[in-house]
UniProtKB/TrEMBL annotation:
<keyword id="KW-0456">Lyase</keyword>
<comment type="similarity">
    <text>Belongs to the alpha-acetolactate decarboxylase family.</text>
</comment>
<feature type="signal peptide">
    <location>
        <begin position="1"/>
        <end position="24"/>
    </location>
</feature>
<protein>
    <recommendedName>
        <fullName>Alpha-acetolactate decarboxylase</fullName>
        <ecNumber>4.1.1.5</ecNumber>
    </recommendedName>
</protein>
<keyword id="KW-0210">Decarboxylase</keyword>
<dbReference type="GO" id="GO:0047605">
    <property type="term" value="F:acetolactate decarboxylase activity"/>
</dbReference>
<comment type="pathway">
    <text>Polyol metabolism; (R,R)-butane-2,3-diol biosynthesis; (R,R)-butane-2,3-diol from pyruvate: step 2/3.</text>
</comment>
<dbReference type="Pfam" id="PF03306">
    <property type="entry name" value="AAL_decarboxy"/>
</dbReference>
<dbReference type="InterPro" id="IPR005128">
    <property type="entry name" value="Acetolactate_a_deCO2ase"/>
</dbReference>
<keyword id="KW-0732">Signal</keyword>
<dbReference type="GO" id="GO:0045151">
    <property type="term" value="P:acetoin biosynthetic process"/>
</dbReference>
<keyword id="KW-0005">Acetoin biosynthesis</keyword>
Length: 263
């Protein structure tokens, strides 16, 4: 009966190795996030990391730039800035960001949305098809849009005002009959304070000349690809702007106003 102990030990060791392997396989399925959405709402627009530093964690995502200087779109490893003046340009690796969410995008699920959906109908349609409301999903939509409404925010100078105040000065853009991609995430309601519950998408046209934070659309036809993310890495900046920010307040209403473009 002597072998029983070694056999039991081997069993445990195998289980441990199997678990490690499972985590290793899901390394690409991690959402990396710098700072929190509530810190951004509170006006923490300071440079907290460079693109080179954060792009080690993914090739797909969204965010903003230091000083709230425009909307950030990350697609296929390339970062674009949608400025409030309507220009769109690729940004170099030494550009700084105060807030970004990104992941390595794998097209794990492909879905065909019904034609001519607006954003409200699209949200309902896609939420009914998510494998679970308790995971985070990277969402990519490639298609032809009859209409897209998006916005960008103007660069700020310190002392920074809360995002809800700055958003009153945002610029709205409308494009018609345009091919492009929606890039972003769907997050569960329990991420409130850290990220944006439900959908947060940015738009980038195929010709890379139009981009911004998505407000509404009519999607003539397209394809949705989903990448469920089963882990989060939250990087909390050791910057005094972040350390001193009041992150105890409930900013859900401010977030709703900012995300929907209400004034
Ligand atoms: Zn946005």
């Amino acid at each position: 009966m002597r072998p029983s102990l070694p056999i039991a030990f081997c069993f445990v060791a195998t289980q441990v190795l199997a678990t490690q392997a499972a985590f290793a396989q899901s390394d690409r399925d991690i959402l990396f996030q710098l700072s929190t959405i509530d810190a951004l709402l509170a006006g923490v627009y300071q440079p907290l990391a460079t693109l080179d530093e954060v792009l080690e964690h993914g090739d797909f995502g969204l965010g903003t730039f230091a000083g709230l200087d425009g909307e950030l779109v990350l697609i296929d490893g390339e970062v674009y800035k949608a400025a409030a003046d309507g220009t769109v340009r690729r940004m170099p690796g030494d550009t700084a960001t105060p807030f970004i969410s990104l992941t390595w995008f794998d097209a794990d699920e492909r879905l065909q949305p019904p034609p001519d959906q607006d954003y409200a109908a699209f949200k309902t349609w896609l939420e009914e098809r998510l494998p679970s409301p308790n995971l985070t999903y990277a969402v990519r939509v490639d298609g032809q849009f009859a209409k897209v409404r998006y916005r960008s925010v103007p660069a700020q100078k310190p002392p920074y005002r809360p995002l809800k105040e700055v958003a009153k000065e945002q610029t709205y853009f409308d494009s018609e009959n345009i091919a492009g991609t929606l890039i972003g995430f769907w997050c569960p309601s329990y991420v409130k304070g850290l990220n944006v519950p439900s959908f947060h998408l940015h738009f980038l046209s195929d010709d890379r000349k139009s981009a911004g934070h998505l407000l509404d659309f009519t999607l003539t036809e397209g394809e949705v690809t989903l990448d469920p993310t089963t882990g989060w890495t939250l990087e909390l900046p050791m910057d005094k702007a972040f350390l001193r920010a009041n992150l105890g307040a409930d900013r859900a209403k401010a977030l709703h106003a900012v995300e929907q473009g209400e004034q």
